[in-house]
Design a protein that fits this description.
Elements: E1 3-8, H1 13-28, E2 37-41, H2 48-63, H3 69-76, E3 79-81, H4 89-103, E4 115-120, H5 127-136, E5 147-151, H6 159-172, E6 178-180, H7 188-198, E7 212-220, H8 229-254, H9 263-275, H10 282-288, E8 289-294, E9 312-317, E10 329-334, E11 341-348, E12 368-374, E13 378-386, E14 394-402, H11 403-407, H12 414-424, H13 433-451, E15 458-461, H14 469-477
Parallel strand pairs: 1-2, 1-4, 2-3, 4-5, 5-6, 7-10, 8-15
Antiparallel strand pairs: 7-11, 8-9, 9-10, 11-12, 12-13, 13-14
Helix pairs in contact: 1-2, 1-12, 5-6, 6-13, 8-9, 8-13, 9-13
The structure holds NADP nicotinamide-adenine-dinucleotide phosphate.
Residues 9-15, 17, 42-44, 85-87, 121-124, 126, 152-154 line the site of NADP nicotinamide-adenine-dinucleotide phosphate (NAP).
């Protein structure tokens, strides 16, 4: 069966920076049984060749040394462009005819054999009309084969808007046709977290409240807000990072083993984690969340000089179930941080009995499992070791696994895996409607309390460090410490 991918928002940044390079890499590596046709749709007028030339230049730039002109020429034979406006129904009729034409379909035959994957790579304000027009023009109807749709993040701005978006989608597409993307799930290291937990026997017995003191999940960005200021100032860190990427990492860390490695089994277990998190009330938001803004943020172009938007958040959540009762999950994300790193730290309890004078008594010296999601993808186990020739003196040492050293070569882009899975109809690494809504259910009370008159203080921090000092002190008061270590690259 051959397939067609239609990218709405074809002339945009995501298409040229991520989607086309990912499809090119899949083609270069021979991952397609039959290479899909790729049809770009946006208002800018391009001929097929003009769009191919534009994409050749950007793909060469983003693929670097992996770009090969001869391979590109073969790949480009599958690329087409059709100009149109998602706000105009007629443009979907002409798109439909165009697709039938390149797929070689008889327009009198409703039961097309070719699968189609629609990718909404455009601002969320266009989703509604794009979905409606796909429905009205018959482009969403499944005949012999599939009609699937990928929806980019952000998926709503709160619970009400995400519910409304799900309602609009479900008027046209059934849930099994919908692929909500969070590119974090396409990362090898996030999938490896499931392998670490469920393909090994040594971790599962200790993966619970009896051995684990707390879990830290950090997504730190070294960059400041840059050219995304306009969007970011209305979104802030909770919508930009916590609601999607950090809660996804939390779900994969905390979920029970699914019965099968299959989309709904996995997503059922993930949703149960979010359902076990009692949303914070206003008092808890005061006590258990942290707001920060880096100094200089309000001077960025596109940001209101009086903006109180948080560029840093620390959030403490409890998962009220048998496994995790009493084990806090600390989520932290910020811009203008010390380095770019995404890491999950499983902090184990201190030993119950201090046998050696030098035995670890504080948590910082106790066992720790660090999962480096990016960059320097890998895993380290920290443990105490006797220093030779120094009596019973001890030092924390580590056993390390590094993806690049072990498997050589660079890691594939998350979009490669996700696009291939969507073409193959595997939704395991995509968010389901109830999952997205459950995530907003946790974030909405925080966003509301942060807007209210008795919101928590907005602490200022200097770029280049680990966020507000007060957040460090807040952890110390709880007898815990952030693991503030930048990964070692290379
Ligand atoms: N860029 C990223 O790295 C990134 C990362 C994660 C998520 N996302 C998400 O991906 C989506 C796309 O982001 P982007 O950065 O690629 O945006 P962008 O660069 O602003 O591109 C928007 C695209 O939409 C098209 N468009 C606008 N109005 C249209 C209309 N009425 N009909 C048809 N096409 C229309 C534009 O083309 P014309 O003007 O030619 O019509 C352009 O191709 C957004 O939802 C964003 O949040 C982006």
């Amino acid at each position: 069966m051959s397939q067609t991918i239609v990218i709405f928002g074809a002339s945009g940044d995501l298409t040229s920076r991520k989607l086309i390079p990912a499809l090119y890499q899949l083609f270069r590596k021979g991952r397609f049984d039959a290479p899909p046709r790729i049809v770009g749709f946006s208002r800018s007028p391009f001929s097929h060749d003009e769009w191919r030339d534009k994409l050749a230049a950007t793909t060469a730039q983003f693929a670097g040394e992996k770009f090969d002109a001869a391979t590109w020429d073969e790949f480009a034979k599958h690329i087409y462009y059709h100009a149109g406006d998602v706000g105009k129904r007629d443009d979907f009729q002409s798109l439909s005819q165009f697709l039938d034409g390149i797929e070689g379909n008889d327009s009198s035959d409703d039961d097309n054999n070719d699968g189609r994957l629609y990718y909404l790579s455009m601002a969320p304000r266009f989703y509604k009309s794009a979905i409606e027009h796909l429905g009205q023009s018959g482009l969403a109807e499944e005949g012999h084969c599939c009609r699937r749709i990928i929806i980019e993040k952000p998926f709503g701005t709160d619970l009400a808007s995400s519910r409304e978006l799900n309602r609009q989608i479900h008027k046209v597409f059934n849930e099994h046709q919908v692929y909500r993307i969070d590119h974090y799930l396409g990362k090898e290291t996030v999938q490896n977290l499931m392998v670490l937990r469920f393909a090994n026997t040594i971790f599962e017995p200790i993966w619970n409240r009896n051995y684990i003191d707390h879990v830290q999940i950090t997504v730190a960005e070294e960059v400041e807000v840059g050219s995304r200021a306009g969007y970011y100032d209305s979104a802030g860190v909770i919508r930009d990072m916590i609601q999607n990427h950090l809660l996804q990492l939390l779900m994969v860390t905390a979920m029970e083993a699914p019965v099968r490695y299959e989309a709904d089994s996995i997503r059922n277990e993930k949703v149960k984690v979010l359902q076990a998190i009692e949303p914070l009330d206003a008092k808890q938001v005061q006590a258990d969340t942290f707001r920060g803004q880096y100094r200089g943020y309000t001077a960025s172009e596109g940001v209101e000089p009086t903006s109180r938007t948080a560029t840093f958040a620390g959030v403490k959540l409890s998962i009220d179930n048998w496994r995790w009762q009493g084990v806090p999950f600390y989520l932290r994300s910020g811009k203008g941080m010390s380095c770019r790193t995404t890491q999950i730290v499983i902090q184990f309890h201190a030993p119950p009995h201090k046998l050696f004078e030098d035995s670890p008594s504080d948590l910082g010296e106790s066992n720790r499992l660090v999962i480096q999601v990016q960059p320097a993808e890998g895993i380290q186990i920290h443990f105490q070791t006797k220093v030779p020739d120094a009596g019973m003196k001890m030092r924390q040492t580590d056993l390390g696994f590094n993806y690049q050293k072990e498997f050589r070569g660079s890691m594939p882009e998350a979009y490669e895996r996700l696009l291939l899975d969507a073409l193959e109809g595997d939704a395991s690494l995509f968010a389901r409607a109830d999952e997205v809504e459950a995530a907003w259910q946790i974030c909405d009370p925080i966003l509301d309390a942060w807007q209210s008159s008795d919101r928590p203080t907005l602490f200022m921090y200097d770029p280049g460090f680990w966020g507000p000092d007060e957040c460090r002190e807040w952890m110390l008061e709880q007898g815990r410490e952030w693991f503030d270590t930048c990964p070692v690259l290379g």
